[in-house]
Amino acid sequence: MGSEVHGMAQRGGSVISHFKVGQYESPLVLTGSADLLIAFDQGEGIRNLHFLRPGAKAILNLHDPAALENVHLKKYATGRGLEISGIPGYRILSEKMNGRFLFMNVLMLGAMCGIGAGNVSIDEIRAAVGTLAPEKHRADNLKAVELGYEYFRGN
Amino acid sequence: MGNKVILLGNEAIARGIVEAGCEVASAYPGTPSSEILPAVARFADELGTRTAVEWAVNEKVAFEVAATASFTGKRTCAIMKQVGLNVAADPLMSVAHFDLAGGFLIVSADDPGPHSSQTEQDSRYFAMFAKVPCFDPASAQEAKDMVFDAFDLSEKYHMPVMLRPAVRVDHCRQDVELGTVKDLGRKADFKKDIRRWVCLPAHVRINHPQLNAKLDSVREDFETLYGRYNFEVPAKGRAALGVIAGGVSFSIVMDLLKAWNREDISVLKIGTPHPLPVKMVEDFIARHENVLVLEETYPVIEMQLPDRTRLKGRWNGFVPRAGELLPEVIRELILKALGETLPEEDSSELKAAIEELKVTPKPPMLCPGCPHRASFFAMRKALPNGIYPSDIGCYTLGVNQRDVDTTIDMGASLTSASGFYLAYRTDGKDQPVVATIGDSTFFHMGILGLVNAVYNRHAFVLAILDNRITAMTGGQSNPSIGDKLRKGDEGRQVDIEGVVRGCGVSFVKVVEPYDTKDSAEVFKEAWEHAKNNREPAVVILRHPCMLLRQKQATVKVRVNPEKCIGCKYCTNFFNCPGLPFDEAAGKAKIDERFCVQCGVCIQVCPHGAIEAVEGEEE
Fold first, then answer.
1. Which of B289, B311, B312, B310 is nearest to B240 (CA)?
2. Do A79 and B31 touch (CB under 8 A)?
3. Across the strands, what pairs with A39?
């Protein structure tokens, strides 16, 4: 079950989607109970860390990696046993995909598997992206998945 | 039983509309309702129904088109957002009194929060005002099921029925059961009957008591026949708290109770908030000492109870009188009602990190390359002492550039311009006023204000920001485009210039907003014309929306640090996500992540610090 943001709130502002898998009645995730946070913007990711339960994981798209070294952030993460990982998505897509940042979404899915989060295997992600991507962009989508995955898993 | 698929709540509603045999569906887009009508067209195409599916120019039009089609005995529906229902309020109040032939469904989507609206009003309240029955779904599946019941109820009592989904139901994704189309085999058969179809006062005097009687019968039905929507989830043993909940609040309460593994709280779900099954609710209240009412956004359930003195709800302020009932809010309210507290979470480190890293919420902004940004810039450049009334659409975000001074509702840019003109003119002053409005909003409610201004001779400039789409709600078609939703269905383009000239405007010029110098000249010329001839002058700024991803020339730009003096003129008056201010360096910079290389900002910097990177132009 998921919840989405549409309309004016979508125009360049903060957009949060909630996803719940299992027997639930309501689409919104309660603060302090999420298993995983995937942030396309590191600032938005940090602002929403409170959604995570103790011991949960976060994967952040970093444009300023120094932020992850912030002392207070580290203390908060340690205190709650959070595993916060970062990936320089913009840099990777600039270098490897000619700056086509629209592929950030699938890169982040690859990164999610790269950190072993989401309870989904990289093969399942590959298969899903392969099925859902339009023919014209299939190869590029799959490449972006690999770029996200390889950042954590190497070659 | 059909198979289950994952659908957006709005798609589930659309599926219900098609399956229930609806033959005419008309709507005006507005968040959170916008995805319903395109999905009606898609399912109608897939299932091969004859359903006419159309974007109307506004909600009043959509309502009247659909309502009247139901006079012929067919099932029809009108779809809109809550503030759209304000626009359709006139026919709603009137048609409520009619003894309808075919089923007529009104879908009015609410936006508690609000997320994308100018109010967080409650359509259930409007249903109460108009005396029409209202269903309030708690999930996508329930929303779909309720569509069938709403049509059936509408035909049982020959009255309009409202479905009120709120944003979390509209925009949730859930597994929903698909069914097949109910073939009603109806032919349009309008039976002339003046008493029935003409709202003369003499007829209303008969119809109003009849409407009251219908509503009493519906209330009886809701007490007894709708157990699938109105039911109690009892506590085990004596309940420490009784919660009455409608809409998604019910679903949130159920998830909380499950997560807490609590069985000492009983819940009464109300899916038909108007007319309220009062006996059912009173019986629940009588059996509980401690009662909390959770509903969005107004106390509509509470208001229908003769005695609400014991209730903890929105009425007495126990539940906040405004705002969305998020899971966190509901958690706190339940615990407060129980006299319990939540263990304090220590989030001081996170707060400190957010402060140190200067992480601020991202406000909505116009997209990089958006033509509106350039239009606003040229407008201000030409008439810096102007008053700038604006309208509802993406361009309301011109506030970020300080180029939107007022916004009331759809179409008010024009009427506000008239208001400003008259107020200053009575002092003998020629105050420059520029109204900005989008193409879709102009057709929605702008034309009437223009006719009024021409007739009364109001001097102002009207800038029509024509981006060839209804952008904010996700790119719907409108008369300036002419596309229609069903496959094989062709519309016709309505020419804005022709409409403007037809309204009696003599100064009409079309410009390319990316050329801010030229547009600024035309703005000046337009104001001189308006002032000297005491009439509105119209500038149409035409450039396709960036979301349409049309190919356009790109110009790679950079900020020359030698020339940039850090005056922030560009961030204050151009305000592009691709051109932020680097506080540390004290200079503007290009953010390659967002820049789409439209090149407009080169014209913006008064110091010539924004330059094209040579050799990289395409």
1. B289
2. no
3. A60
